[in-house]
Amino acid sequence: MPPKVVTTHTALRAELGGASPGFVATMGGLHEGHASLIRRSAAENATTVVSIFVNPTQFSNPWDLAVYPRQLEADLDIAGAAGADMVYAPDRDEIYPSGFASSIDPGPLARSWEGGARPGHFQAVATVVAILLNSVLPKRAYFGEKDFQQLLVIRRMAKDLRIPVEIVGCPTVRDADGLALSSRNARLSPAERARARAIPKALFRMREMVEQGIDSSIETLSEVLPMLPPSKDFHVDYFAMVDPVELEPVVQAVPGTRAIVAVEVGSTRLIDNIELVPMNTESR
Ligand code: AMP
Q: What angle do CA 48, 50, 55 make, to 5 degrees?
């Protein structure tokens, strides 16, 4: 069954009645990564709502916003096939009506790494996600570990503001060559795409070294950074070993430690991360 499409908060509330659905927030351009979140929500909730809203306030680069994929019909097919019951596709004025003035500052977590490269980005993400959560009123909301810092920012925001929702992190879905699926991958030229494969290779090599007992950030980074040699159209913005709570750099990998990386490939910014040592299940 194709999902029911609603474009206003009022229609969304009327359709949902008293139900507390599962929720997946997206900016459209849906791919298998989004589909995995929707399937998980559909498996765990009686009703699943997917939002499609390209949030203009979280883009610092107007070109990035202008070329962001917009493909509602294809998105509805993918969302429906994955088990979405309803798609909430508001326009800009519905989310930010005239006079809108509030925003959420998620604190220090929003200022490092992606937050450093894109000032204001996580404030904008936290604000739009809070608006969407308050419209959908979900029991559970599903976010990808692909955007690990975003997942932490949203978890912190929901906890601090006592928003009654369970934030569920879901594993990164990758292409056969290892590259994490992203709506932005479609912009890569064949040559850029070929170079981008080095990103997951470097992450996987780092994890392999840690598994073999070489677990210091200095030793691992000095081996994997040369796998990403800089050039005119390939620039590593950061590559670091960090703790999975505050994203502070660490000198040695312990359970839960993650490697995070951001690379500018031509005019496209790609981010990725992996867990280097499995978290002890009892400490999750
Ligand atoms: P976006 O549409 O890029 O804002 O992403 C919407 C949601 O899908 C976010 O929670 C992302 O972390 C998640 N997501 C995007 N790409 C992937 C992927 N390759 N694997 C898993 N989740 C993803």
A: 155
CA-to-CA distance for 1 and 222, rounded, in angstroms? 52
Q: Which atom of ligand 1 is nearest to the CA of 143?
A: 10
In the structure, what pLDDT confidence band is assigned to residue 277 with cuts at 50, 70 and 90?
very high
Which residues lie closer than 8 Å to 45 by C-beta, 6 or more apart?
A: 21, 22, 138, 139, 140
- Asked whether residue 189 carries a pLDDT value surpassing 90, the answer given is yes
- Residue 186 confidence (pLDDT) above 60: yes
If you ran DSSP here, which 8-state letter would residue 260 be given? E
201: which 2 tokens? Answer: 């290779």
CB 146 near ligand 1, within 6 Å: yes
Residue nearest to atom 13 of ligand 1 (CA): 144
- Cα-atom radius of gyration of the chain, to the nearest Å? 19
Three-state secondary structure call for residue 207: helix
> 121-136 vs 9-16: helix axis angle to the nearest 10?
40
pLDDT(82) > 50: yes
